[in-house]
Write a structure and sequence with these properties.
Helix 1 packs antiparallel against helix 13, helix 2 packs across helix 11 and helix 4 crosses helix 13. About 40% of the residues lie in helices and about 20% in strands. It has about 325 residues and is an alpha/beta fold. It has 13 helices and eleven strands.
Length: about 325
């Protein structure tokens, strides 16, 4: 097989299904000694208190009981998840340092940033897809629309008059909004915020008219009537918003509406294959626990838990979708 370090990204993706485990790198050796014999650290590349951090703590608590070792959560926020993910990419490949992160730092950032301190394909090994993280398309309560078709028509009739928000350039909320604006020739303005909370406050206040948001953040405002829910991304309705139809249900079947963000776990490349498989096996068992599934569902996510090989197949399918969306949005960061 060709040296992966000299392969193109697409060539690598073709190999990923066979390798199963790796984002890139040669297949690792077996562990030289039993694992684990000391605490395991999960780095969350976002600040404490958010949905990703909550998922990590739920998973970490259960893993600790199963592994017989403390599982420590280390929050290292900054630079759209890059700082914390880079720390794992450069950590010793021994199974004691893992990253639990969003698709942002594990996939999307490589298309968005011209300079990255790590190469996701070379420096990380996939462990398990923890959860799908769909978003809900919400609008200001005063907007005269109630479903996807009405919103699309309203956007087209009000070209250049609407603004959509996101929690950052290159985020799923930004890329989905940019695609929607282009598809409807709506010429909407994008407003990037430092976090979801200020975005939602401006949406309620009418400074922006629409946004893709997390169920965790938007649900309270939907329930009080301050925001209207138009639809959710992905192929399944959210447990926490059962009466809100998916966008594909409403005839919006483009890739951006059928896909969603996700939360996944990875290890440094060249982590011994048996350790990666052991961690993945334990994560799958944790994700299948009824109380864990319920806790993750309460945040608007859907627990998955799969094998490294399954995660690799999923990653391969998602790769070209997000690559296209970033290019179409014109977003690029240094």
């Amino acid at each position: 097989m060709k040296d992966i370090h000299h392969s193109t990204r697409r060539h690598w993706l073709g190999q990923a299904g066979a390798a199963g485990l790796l984002l890139a790198g040669a297949l690792p050796l077996q562990a030289a000694e039993p694992w684990p014999t000391k605490p395991v650290k999960i780095i969350v590349p976002f600040n404490a208190g958010g949905a990703t951090d909550t998922v990590a703590r739920v998973i970490g608590e259960k893993l600790s009981s199963r592994l017989g070792q403390p599982v420590l959560i280390d929050n290292r926020g900054g630079a759209a998840g890059i700082l914390g993910t880079d720390a794992v990419a450069k950590a010793a490949p021994d199974g004691y340092t893992l990253v639990l992160s969003l698709s942002t730092s594990l996939l999307i950032n490589q298309f968005l940033y011209t300079k990255m301190p790590y190469n996701a394909q070379r420096d990380l090994a996939l462990v398990s897809l923890i959860a799908n993280a769909p978003t809900v398309l919400v609008v200001n309560a005063g907007l005269p629309v109630s479903n996807g078709a009405e919103l699309m028509a309203y956007m087209a009739k009000n070209k250049g008059k609407l603004s959509y928000g996101s929690w950052g350039v290159g985020s799923q909320a930004h890329l989905a909004g940019a695609y929607m604006s282009q598809a409807q020739d709506a010429d909407m303005s994008h407003v990037a915020y430092k976090g979801e909370a200020p975005m939602l406050q401006d949406l309620i206040g009418g400074q922006i008219q629409l946004a893709f948001a997390s169920a965790l953040g938007a649900k309270p405002h939907i329930e009080t009537g301050k925001l209207k829910a138009i639809g959710v991304t992905g192929e399944q309705r959210m447990t926490v918003l059962p009466n809100v139809p998916t966008l594909p249900e409403q005839g919006l079947k483009d890739e951006v509406y059928r896909t969603s963000g996700w939360v996944g776990m990875a290890a440094p490349a060249k982590t011994p294959v048996d350790i990666v498989q052991r961690i993945s096996s334990e994560v799958r068992a944790v994700c299948a626990l009824p109380d864990v599934k319920e806790r993750i569902a309460s945040m608007g996510f859907m627990a998955v838990g799969n094998t490294p090989e399954q995660f690799g197949t999923f990653y391969k399918r998602e790769f070209p979708v997000w690559e296209r969306l970033v290019k179409q949005s014109g977003a690029q960061l240094d």
